[in-house]
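Input (structure):
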């Protein structure tokens, strides 16, 4: 039996009121003889408690849960902390505890305590108080509510002074901010300046850089940095503006005067130093003399304008000259020029058959022939690999560009004699003009000829792109599909007459025309036509890009962790297919995947993806011995229908020595439903191999629940579209957001999770991006999830680093 006994304190100080202490008196009530012993024990405990309270370095209290925090009992340590005696605080005799709390902290203290009481938990607070002498102190408080008969009686807790600790932390923060750059950049010039441009401090290295004898002399003479130091006074204004906007500037290069009037180049790193309220105190930073570096850089820049292999201008110089032509066209309306994008057909076979040395000699010989086909004022450049560009300046019309293209292909009819080998080749050429005349392009828009590719009896085949590959792509080659490429000779529809206004526009248009030429039979030229581009060319272009990507191994795989929503541990990764285009960079999956799935291209891509991902998983499993990692790989519809489906999977597992239970195949729901007769047998065979099967995009399209029980699957994976409330609302403005949140979204997700559990499956949520979505899924007992809230997709190297860090857990 627990009661509260009110005792007089042993220490008879009149300032202290009585202490209330809980005791178990059940045994004391059981007999007359036990009462005496119980009272003595109580007095002993009370004496010890009183001694403890007097010697604690803080205060213990009991107070009411009212707006003034009325003190009912408080230990003697309150005088040392607050400079008020206990009797002055008890019952708010002189001042209430609420008045002691700093005005800026009162609201947060009240809110935090009330929140803890609602949760029936302890509260821990850090806030400021004002002592009787007006001194501001920082305190740490911990306490809890005391209840009786189901009602809150009082608050009890403990408060200690942490002012010295807070002051030490603030002093350390200021010292680190002030001296970090000094210790890191001691050999460079170091400065502190006002926002008005006056030096506060400078070190000897800065004085030497600027040619002064000492920092004192520098600070005395350089009193207006903006006008005395910088060659261009606007540089100082720009420098200050960057600091105001970003609070930091790195590598800011400017030309400045030294004391003797000579000019040097400097590089500045600086930051804005502010007080706790965010007010600017000063700027500080470092200065490095980069005059010699600038000179060497200029020399390297000159060398960097030409291709080391062919001696032709490279991409940088070509873009510079193209930019000049664009600017000239803006000044002179009638100025016309053309860009030719040239690509050798089947260059890869030369490299593969005869070696890279012969391939390089072919590129050099081709460069010499191209130079004979243009005028001295024109530019032929090698972009990289077997890609060349030509800039024809000051031409009359498109006929001049098409004549050059015809001349080039005529030159290529003669064989190349390289190290005893006779090599025939041809080129596909795309042409783009800065302005277009409708009648001219109609007459000159396309041209072709069978240029007799081959070396003796052996034909030379596919191209090898040296330019535009992803920065690091050690992945194995993708099997080359044998799908036919259209070879239509139909004329190009009449174009519109817009102009390509930038160098990027022209290069892009010429590139599109080039790949249209390759798609229509190779060994030909095409003039870019915007009308065709806007109608049928995009899909043809994309398909051509995909075929080229397979040849050039431009696909990459990124991996997104899959997380246990209960423990936060990473259980596996989903392999995500990415496409790197040499000009566009990464192409969105939603852009190329529909075309790939419509054609047979998805089959070789899919098998390559499976093998590459399995190879990577083995490497990770060897790194991580603490837990078994799994890999989720998409099995696309075209793959699912292939007769060698199981043999391909078996071969991948065997080659990689991978256990089937580590592989999770994600199969679209629509694929299973459309193949209701064969799907169960295929799934059964996968289960025999211990492969985990997951229905992907469940609920995204139409679902047939009556067939779901026929499929032997292990998990349902539902799409982010069921979680992303804001996105759904934006896509359908007629749906009220609140209704979707409460009446539709949660019940649907809950139903899917429950359906999975009732069928003995686990549920996987895709695309989790907010804490709210995570909390809702956890409440529904959804087992797994993935999304940018935990981790964004990452490359294999980043996953390896994550595994090596032994931090395979998400921060909820």
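Output (sequence):
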């Amino acid at each position: 039996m627990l009661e509260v006994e009110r005792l007089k304190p042993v220490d008879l100080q009149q300032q202290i009121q009585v202490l209330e202490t809980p005791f178990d008196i059940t045994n004391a009530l059981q007999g007359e003889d036990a009462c005496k012993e119980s009272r003595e024990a109580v007095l002993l405990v009370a004496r010890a408690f009183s001694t403890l309270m007097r010697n604690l370095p803080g205060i213990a209290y009991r107070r009411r849960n009212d707006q003034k925090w009325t003190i009912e009992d408080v230990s003697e340590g309150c005088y040392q902390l607050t400079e008020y005696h206990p009797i002055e605080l008890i019952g708010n005799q002189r001042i209430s505890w609420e008045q002691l709390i700093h005005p800026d902290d009162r609201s947060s203290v009240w809110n935090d305590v009330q929140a803890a009481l609602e949760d029936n938990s302890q509260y821990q607070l850090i806030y400021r108080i004002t002592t009787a002498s007006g001194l501001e102190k920082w305190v740490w408080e911990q306490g809890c509510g005391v209840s009786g008969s189901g009602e809150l009686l009082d608050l009890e807790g403990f408060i200690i002074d942490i002012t010295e600790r807070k002051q030490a932390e603030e002093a350390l923060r200021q010292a680190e901010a002030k001296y970090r750059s000094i210790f890191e950049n001691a050999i460079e010039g170091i400065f502190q300046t006002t926002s008005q441009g006056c030096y506060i401090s400078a070190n000897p290295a800065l004085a030497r850089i600027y040619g002064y004898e000492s920092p004192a002399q520098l600070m005395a003479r350089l009193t207006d940095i903006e006008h005395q130091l910088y060659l261009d006074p606007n540089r100082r204004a720009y420098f200050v503006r960057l600091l105001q906007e970003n609070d930091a500037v790195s590598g800011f290069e400017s030309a400045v005067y030294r004391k003797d009037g000579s000019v040097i180049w400097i590089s500045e790193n600086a930051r804005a130093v502010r007080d706790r309220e965010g007010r600017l105190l000063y700027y500080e930073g470092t200065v490095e003399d980069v005059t010699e570096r600038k000179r060497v850089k200029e020399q390297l820049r000159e060398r960097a304008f030409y291709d080391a292999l062919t001696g032709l201008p490279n991409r940088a110089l070509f873009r510079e000259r193209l930019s000049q032509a664009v600017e000239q066209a803006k000044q002179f309306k009638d100025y016309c020029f053309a860009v030719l994008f040239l690509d050798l057909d089947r260059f890869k076979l030369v490299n593969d058959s005869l070696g890279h040395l012969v391939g390089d000699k072919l590129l050099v010989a081709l460069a010499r022939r191209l130079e004979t086909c243009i005028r001295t004022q024109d530019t032929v450049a090698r972009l990289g690999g077997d890609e060349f560009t030509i800039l024809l300046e000051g031409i009359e019309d498109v006929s001049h560009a098409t004549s050059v293209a015809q001349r080039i292909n005529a030159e290529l009819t003669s064989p190349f004699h390289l190290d005893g080998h006779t090599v025939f080749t041809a080129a596909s050429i795309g042409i783009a003009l800065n302005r277009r005349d409708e009648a001219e392009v109609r007459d000159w828009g396309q041209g072709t000829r069978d240029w007799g590719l081959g070396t003796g009896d052996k034909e030379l085949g596919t191209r090898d792109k040296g330019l535009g590959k992803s920065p690091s792509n050690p992945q194995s080659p993708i099997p080359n599909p044998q799908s036919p490429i259209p070879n239509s000779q139909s004329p190009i529809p009449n174009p519109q007459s817009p102009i390509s206004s930038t160098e990027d526009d022209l290069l892009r248009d010429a590139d599109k025309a080039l790949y249209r030429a390759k798609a229509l039979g190779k060994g030909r030229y095409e003039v870019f036509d915007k009308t065709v581009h806007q109608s049928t060319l995009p899909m043809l272009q994309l398909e051509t890009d995909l075929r080229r990507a397979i040849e050039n191994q431009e696909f990459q795989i990124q991996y997104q962790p899959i997380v246990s929503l209960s423990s936060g541990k990473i259980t596996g990764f989903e392999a995500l297919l990415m496409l790197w285009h040499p000009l566009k960079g990464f192409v969105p999956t939603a852009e190329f995947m529909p075309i790939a799935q419509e054609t047979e291209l998805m089959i070789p891509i899919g098998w390559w993806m499976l093998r590459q991902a399995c190879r990577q998983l083995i490497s990770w499993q060897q790194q991580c011995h603490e837990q078994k990692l799994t890999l989720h790989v998409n099995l696309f519809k075209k793959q699912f229908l292939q007769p060698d489906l199981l043999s391909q999977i078996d071969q991948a597992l065997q080659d990689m020595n991978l256990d089937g239970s580590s592989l999770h195949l994600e199969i679209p729901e629509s694929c299973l439903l459309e193949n209701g007769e064969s799907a169960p047998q295929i799934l059964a065979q996968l289960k025999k191999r211990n492969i985990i099967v997951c229905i992907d995009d469940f609920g995204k399209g139409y679902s047939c629940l009556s067939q779901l029980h026929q499929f032997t699957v292990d998990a349902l994976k539902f799409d982010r579209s069921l979680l992303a409330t804001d996105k759904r609302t934006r896509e359908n403005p007629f749906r009220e957001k609140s209704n979707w949140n409460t009446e539709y979204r949660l019940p649907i997700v809950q139903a899917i999770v429950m359906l999975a559990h009732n069928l003995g499956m686990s549920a996987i949520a895709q695309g989790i991006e907010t804490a709210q979505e995570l909390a809702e899924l956890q409440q529904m007992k959804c087992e797994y999830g993935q999304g940018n809230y935990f981790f964004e997709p990452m490359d294999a190297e980043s996953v390896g680093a994550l595994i090596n860090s032994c931090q395979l857990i998400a921060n909820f």
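Notes: The chain has a mean pLDDT of 81. The chain has 30 helices and 29 strands.
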